[in-house]
Amino acid sequence: MLILSRKVDQKIKIGDDITLTIIEVRDGQVKIGVEAPKHVKVFRQEIFEAIQDENKAAATQTTPEQLQRLFFTKKN
Known about the structure:
Layout: E1 11-14, E2 18-26, E3 29-35, H1 45-60, H2 64-72
Antiparallel strand pairs: 1-2, 2-3
């Protein structure tokens, strides 16, 4: 992990297309602006983890309609 110290209005570049800007530091909280191409998805860590959990749950759930198709589909 790279650890950097930055002041308000200073920037961090990630590759050619992503820029992080320190917007504000107050009461132990840092506000960061993210400039990235539209195709780059940017999430807070806790939101990213929630999305991953939902995707895993959706992949393992079987709906009643899916069960019905499994058991009542005509076979040749």
